[in-house]
Design brief:
The complex is a heterodimer of chains A (about 575) and B (about 90). Chain A has about 575 residues and is mainly α. Chain A contains 22 helices and two strands. The longest helix of chain B is centred in the N-terminal third of the chain and has 35 residues. Chain B is elongated. The two termini of chain B are about 20 Å apart. The chains are: A mainly alpha (about 575), B mainly alpha (about 90).
Chain lengths: ~575, ~90
């Protein structure tokens, strides 16, 4: 069977599974629609959280990014996993005890303010929407490249599938499809890595393989360092001293941002007890770690393979995959010195090979000569990653509108049935809007993701932490912290992002911190301002202090309604 | 009531102590071993891995997973001890 037939077959099977699950797990109440009835098993929730979290970017782009960054790529590995420690230790158990549906719920009640709820609501909408557009685009790209479907049709198929199970099942349908999607994506990511690790090092575990000796008896990393230096690149494992401060701040912004992202936080509202919320974060990170510890191995294998197969080889003898990818424009060769050979060098004047980082994961099985079904599997995995993240984000968008805006802001008298209906309409509209934006994505979508993490880190994270750990924190403190944190972070990012029209130059970065890392500083600023302002203004009302007391101990979570007892 | 409040206070203080220790480890394996001292650690080898590089690309993630499971174990024990656990 050809690669394309395998891809069609595997993608169809996985889509059929998602649809069957959606029909079985329909939602009948707002509680089922928003938090899957609150009875999800912690291990299942761990898998759903992992699928929710690992997006098209984690699956398709990250390993490629690391392959070309070397040591500094660690900022993504640590940044996108370390946030779960914060979630498990500082947020998840307390928010579960609080026992409501959304992050704006917590902000609104803890800071006894409708306006605080509105600020949180707008942030949640902004963060989730920018994120979901990227996922829709990922679906279109995967379809276009592997199933010979036009990009637009690919996005439309994606919209159709998500529409079906998200509108029908809400959080309940999404949770159980995410469990299936996790299994598909983790299998699809690890199988090729295991094959390649065996091929290159004889060790079936990629995490150990990339620290082992290759078939020639030399450590793989040592060989890659030598190859890189020969071609004029930095040694793969060596530290880029000038970038350390920036790496520190980016790692921080990604960690604190992760812990503040609404679509991740709401997953911990779906488990029955506080202790389930704690352990569930542990399972989630364990499942995420399987991909995140395999990715750096894939990066090393791919980088070594590219240099070995292409550097200084005659262009007439390149393998078939090279020609396939050349046709997509993501790989290109320009024979500058007319010697008919590929010169792959760090020096841009002499370099003749351009490789788009995004193709590493997709091309890796072909580069390593793996059978065609493996390639089909990787495509199905990439689609699972994109769809699961999109669904989780869309749910946050719909909940924000039907629950936070409609039920708690505009029309508190709405009936349960009316709210459920509104939630379904809101998610349907959100799916279509995200799909349309994905069809015609503004050029700055990728840049705006930095903004999403920065805003989550500089707004939600401090506001929630202080709401739990500081009984004296009041509305004035939290609000001024959030607003100044957001304004500072957003201004810095927009000013220093030429793609967003900012005039700032790299040499003027504060302490060398790039826009991706500024969220860490915004977060610190938020904490300082909130603490100072709260001490200069009246303490919060007695029932809010009691609410804070109440969420600090686990017992009684089952009956909690968010009111102080 | 007074005894109850005092108990809740020690429960919370112990919780904060656990958090301080676990988060100190969290910070050390990632920000210190994986970034700040990575260059120094790279002179030591762990099999084929320079140690600083290993912490940035592998070790810190393993440590994160372990930290959460240790926290869960400690808190479940603490909840029982102070009789605030769930049924």
């Amino acid at each position: 069977m050809s690669t394309q037939s395998w891809t069609y077959l595997l993608v169809s099977i996985t889509f059929l599974i998602y649809i069957i699950i959606a029909i079985v797990a329909r939602a009948g109440s707002t509680k089922e629609f928003y938090v899957a009835g609150g009875g999800v098993n912690p291990i299942a929730n761990g898998m759903a959280t992992a699928a929710d979290w690992m997006s098209a970017a984690s699956f398709l782009s990250m390993a490629g990014l690391i392959a070309f960054m070397g040591f500094s790529g660690g900022q993504y590995l640590m940044g996108w996993t370390g946030g779960y420690v914060l979630l498990a230790l500082l947020l998840a158990p307390y928010l579960r005890k609080f026992g409501k549906f959304t992050v704006p719920d917590f902000i609104g009640e803890r800071y006894y303010s409708k306006n605080a709820r509105l600020v949180a609501l707008i942030c949640a909408l902004f963060v989730s929407f920018t994120y979901v557009v990227g996922q829709m685009k990922g679906v279109g790209v995967a379809f276009a490249r592997f199933l010979n479907v036009p990009f637009d049709t690919g996005v439309l198929i994606g919209i159709g599938i998500v529409f079906f199970y998200a509108v029908l099942g809400g959080m309940k349908g999404i949770t159980y499809t995410q469990v299936a999607q996790f299994c598909v994506l983790i299998f699809a990511f690890t199988v090729p890595a295991i094959f390649i690790s065996l091929q290159m090092t004889g060790n079936p575990i990629p995490q150990l393989g990339f620290g082992s000796k290759g078939t020639d008896g030399v450590y793989l990393l040592e060989k890659l360092n030598l190859l890189s230096k020969d071609l004029g690149f930095d040694s793969y494992t060596s530290i880029d001293r000038g970038n350390l401060v920036n790496m520190f701040f980016i790692t921080g912004a990604l960690m604190f941002g992760t812990a503040g992202l609404p679509h991740v936080i709401v997953r911990f509202f779906t488990v029955p007890r506080v202790k389930d919320a704690r352990i569930s974060a542990g399972w989630a990170l364990l499942f995420i770690a399987i991909l995140y510890t395999t990715a750096p191995a894939v990066a090393v294998f791919a980088r070594t393979n590219i240099i070995n197969t292409l550097s200084n080889k005659s262009y007439d003898e390149v393998p078939q995959w090279f020609t396939n990818w050349e046709n997509t424009g993501l790989l290109s060769f320009e024979d500058k010195n007319n010697d008919g050979k590929i010169q792959y060098l760090a020096d841009t004047q002499l370099n003749e090979l351009t490789v788009d980082r995004d193709i590493i994961v997709l091309a890796n099985p072909e580069i390593a000569n793996l059978p065609p079904w493996v390639i089909g599997l990787v495509v199905a995995g990439g689609l699972a990653a994109a769809l699961s993240t999109a669904a989780g984000l869309l749910l946050v968008i719909s909940t924000s509108i039907s629950h936070d805006l409609l039920k708690n802001y505009l029309r508190p008298d709405i009936s349960e049935k009316g709210e459920l209906y509104a939630a379904r309409v809101a998610i349907a509209v959100a799916v279509v809007a995200a799909g349309l934006a994905g069809l015609n994505p503004p050029g700055f979508v990728a840049q705006v993701v930095a903004l999403a993490f920065g805003l989550a880190a500089s707004s939600f994270f401090p506001a929630i932490i202080l709401g739990i750990f500081d009984k004296r924190m009041n509305r004035q403190g939290a609000m001024s912290g959030m607003i100044i944190g957001i304004l500072f972070t957003a201004s810095y990012i927009i000013y220093f992002k030429p793609q967003l029209g900012g005039p700032g130059l790299q040499e003027n970065f504060w302490w060398g911190i790039s826009p991706e890392g500024i969220g860490t500083l915004g977060m610190i600023l938020n904490f300082v301002i909130a603490l100072v302002v709260s001490r200069l203004t009246p303490p919060p009302p007695k029932e809010v202090v009691e609410l804070t007391e109440h969420i600090r101990t686990p017992r009684g979570a089952e009956v909690s309604t968010g009111q102080a007892h | 009531m007074g005894i109850m409040n005092k108990n809740k206070n020690t429960y919370w203080k112990t919780n904060l102590k656990y958090l301080a220790i676990l988060l100190a480890i969290w910070f050390t394996v990632s920000f210190l071993f994986g970034i700040v001292f990575a260059e120094y650690l790279n002179q030591f080898m762990l099999g084929g891995f320079p140690l600083g590089f290993w912490f940035a690309h592998q070790g810190s993630i393993y440590a994160f997973v372990l930290l959460i499971f240790v926290y869960v174990y400690l808190m479940n024990k603490l909840d029982k001890k102070y009789d605030v656990d769930e049924l």
